[in-house]
Amino acid sequence: MTENARTTAPTAAPSGTFASLNPRSGTVLAEYPIADSVAVAAAVDRARSAARWWNDQGFRGRRTMLLDFKQAVASDADTLAALISAETGKPRGDAVLEIMLAIEHLDWAARHARQVLRRRRVRSGLPAVNQSATLGYQPLGVIGVIGPWNFPLYTPMGAISYALAAGNAVVFKPSELTPGVGTWLETTWHSLFPTRPVLQVVTGLGETGTALARAGVDKIAFTGSGTTARTVMAVCAETLTPLVAECGGKDAMLVAEDADLDKAAEAAAVGAFGNAGQVCAGVERIYVVEPVYHRFLDKLTAAAIRVHPGGDDTATYGPMTLPRQVDIVRDHIADALTRGGTAVVGGVDAVHERYIDPVILTDVPETSTAVREETFGPTVVVNKVGDLDEAIERANATTYGLGASVFTRNRARGRALARRLRSGAVSVNSVFSYGAVPALPFGGIGESGFGRVHGADGLREFSRPHAVTVERYPAPMKLFALERSERDMTIVTWMFRLRHAR
Prior knowledge:
The protein is of the alpha/beta class. Helices cover 41% and strands 18% of the residues.
């Protein structure tokens, strides 16, 4: 296959299939069917029936089966890691780490669903003192998951695990760049429960995702660009199908004058260059206070020089998985330089056909696309600020709000700064560590999307609250009646004023 053949995502073949390509070489890994609207609707119908059975298993039964599924995935992690590495181009070690994180979330969701979602008594309050009130959470039914390609297991499993644990069936449409990972998950599930299609996969291109959003699912969990999210939202709006969307970020790192600069530089390198920068919650902007700016920049530069992309497992990171992203990265670098920025490491010539060498840009105006738009490549902007107040102001100035990080030896100060950052999550003295904590919700605001996966909020995201009241004894006063006595109104008015008007 020629180099030019990789300039676009996979396209349909005349046979109704599409090819999964090796991003290292452009060779075909496998062919997968394109599920049309009829096939997608059939999958959703099967899921609807399976969802009723799955809900009937209760928290205990689902917990047992999900832990069996977890064990099956973990026991064959080598095969799965090889598949992730082949489809994304990332080194196998990165694929193994992705599996580990996904498994931790699956385990947490299975073990905590009952505690979070079980029915419990709530206070009735004075007007309904004779009522016993309870609140529980019930599954929505069938969840459609549209997954990304950069973390083809960890990211969609953030929705799949919590949706399943909450009692829903799932129809998963993986990215057309990584269909094999989704198919592997389905095959593994069916090896355990061959007659229970609680987890199904439909492969295909964009039209398959559109069909899933139109197929009458009870919620869509989408991960991808803001542009695509708007398209999915428009389709969901046709049937008032709710949506949880994680749409990427332009995450900032703040470095204080008292930060451990060695640690900060190492974390910055991981956040900026790991997975070829194809990380929603990576590090794309760094604001360093003036007294330590040059020392930090020197350390980050030294770390970047040691980075080497390549096509084997000894490489720091692999190729760009999405071919057209290469042009976006090149354009952002060029815009930064045109506007007066400086390339301390790399530059436009760091962008190659399949691989991009690490790039560090400095003195980049805040109006540059390299600062304001998601680059999604192994580049980072490092700008000097007068103080942390200015750093906060700049960090909050974009429309994105997914994650952020703060580096300071004073942890109390770090927590205070974290509370001022406009983002869904913040890590102090590390980068995106919140994504490794299953109990913490993950998601963004603004251009980064809405809704949450992971944690108790992730379980509730795929549930509906169900309120029940049961009369314990007849009401002492008939307030909710067409004819109220003057005596009852006098008493209740006096009680109201005593309670609320003093």
